[in-house]
Structure formats: structure tokens, C-alpha cells
Amino acid sequence: MEQLLHHLKNLGFTDLEAKVMVELAQGGAASGYEVSKRTGASRSNVYAALQRLAGQGFLRVGEGEPARYSMLPVEELTRIISGRLQESLETVERKMPRQEHEQAPFHNLEGDRDVMTSLARELGGAKHEIVVDVRREEVALVLDMLEQAEQRGVKVLWACDSGEAALGQWLPRGAFETEPIPGGRKFSFVVDRRWCMLGMRGDSGAAQAVVTEHPVMTELLLNQFAQDIVLYEMENDMGAELSVRYGWRYENIIGKYVSGGPRSI
Question: What order do you get walking across the sheet with 59-61 strand by strand?
Fold first, then answer.
């Protein structure tokens, strides 16, 4: 009973209105005086509640004196409530003022606990795709979450700097390795092409990250990942033939943009 009253109040009915509705549904049609006796509420308050409910179409009012009130069938009641709620939600979505040029915010996270809490929440709610770029030192922190996502049918694409493939879609990290960032190891995650995290974690274990749903950051991380995949596939397919075919030009192109030159193939 208390749970039912609680949910009726959540739908916008007052405490007395909820009690009156349950009493009429339970005991059948009744006059205001009878409802007052059953609920223990004052007659004036009960009459006011009955009139409000009848005026909103939630009660039927019989002819005669005194008037007798009865509840609608529950299916009809819930259909009316659902329709009105949906209409209100659509109106709010359509009419609520929006800020012009509203942009997704960037949030800074400090420390392993905050970073992992945020990451676990998003990976646990992923529905379609997760793109991951991590170093092998961080693999153990996320492996269980990625495996669970795959078991739910989420496509997981992830890259690591070296080691055995932990998941089916594993790729070596990047087609060309850059110099490590002083003081830490970079990691990034993109979930459902919407939410992304870019951060760094040091040997001490302390992590720092930026989290956002800004489409520019998401696009940058996805483009970087796609570029690495394409370059890796080219090297994997052509092998040493790249250097044979392009000679010094290939090495010069890579050396111009990537510190340390091309990875050995």
C-alpha cells in the first residue's frame, strides 16, 4: 500500500488524493462522507480532493444526492496519465529555451579513483562501440571491463604498445611509435562515438584525465586511431616492400612528422 501511495505521489497527486483514489479502487463507489470516514480525513478536505480528481477526469461521478464517486478502471487511468505525461514531456522539450552555441563542457579528473570511477561508469553503459588506446602497464586496469562489454555485444577496438592480444580486435599501438611523454603514459577512450577521455598516468599510479562529449575531441581521437590502423595495415601488408618501393622518400616522410622515424618492419 505504501509503495502504491508513494508512486501516485510521484505522478503529481497529493497525499490525500492518492489515499482517496486507493480507497475508492479498494472499497468501490462512495459518497464524500463515506470516503471521509474511511480515510479519517476531514470532510472539507476530502470533498475538495474528490472535486479536483473528478475535474481532471480521474473519477466518475454518479447522479443522485449525495453524489457517489468511483475510480476509473486502472487501465484507463494509467492510459490517461501516460498520455498527459508524454504531452508534457514533448512540450518541455519543444518549448524549453536553449542556449545558443551550447557546447559540451570539459571536465578535469585527478587521481586513479576519480578516473577509474568515471571510466567504469561509461564502459559499463556502452551500447555499440569502445575505442581504446592504452599502454601495456594500464591493460590490467581495464581488461575486465572491456571483456564484459564484448560479452554484451559491444564492439571493442583497442590498441596496446606490445604484448599478446588480450581481445580479438587487438592492434599494436600506433603504426609509428612516438617518443614517450615525460612523466607518464598517454591513454584514451572513446565510447559510442560520443564520450571520450584523454589522459596520462605515471609510474606512481597517479592519473590525470580530461573527459568530454565535445564532438571535436571525439573526432580527433577517432581520426588518430583510424590513421594508426591504416598505417599499421599498410606496413603489415607490404612489409619491407615499403622501403624497397619508396626508398629514402618513405623514411623522410615519416621522419619529418614522427620523432624517431618509422618503426622497423
Answer: 30-31, 68-71, 59-61
The answer to whether 2-95 and 106-233 have equal CATH topology is no
Any idea which of 148-152, 162-166, 224-228, 247-251 has the lowest mean pLDDT? 162-166
pLDDT digits (tens, 9 = 90+) for 132-141: 988 877 888 8
CATH class (in words) of the domain with range 2-95: mainly alpha
Could you say which architecture CATH assigns to the domain 106-233? Answer: 2-Layer Sandwich (3.30)
Q: Can you give the pLDDT at residue 19?
A: 93
For strand 170-172 and strand 185-191, is the pairing parallel, antiparallel, or unpaired? unpaired
List the chain domain ranges: 2-95, 106-233
SS3 73: coil
Residue 27: CB atoms within 10 A of its CB come to: 13
The average pLDDT across 221-238 equals 76
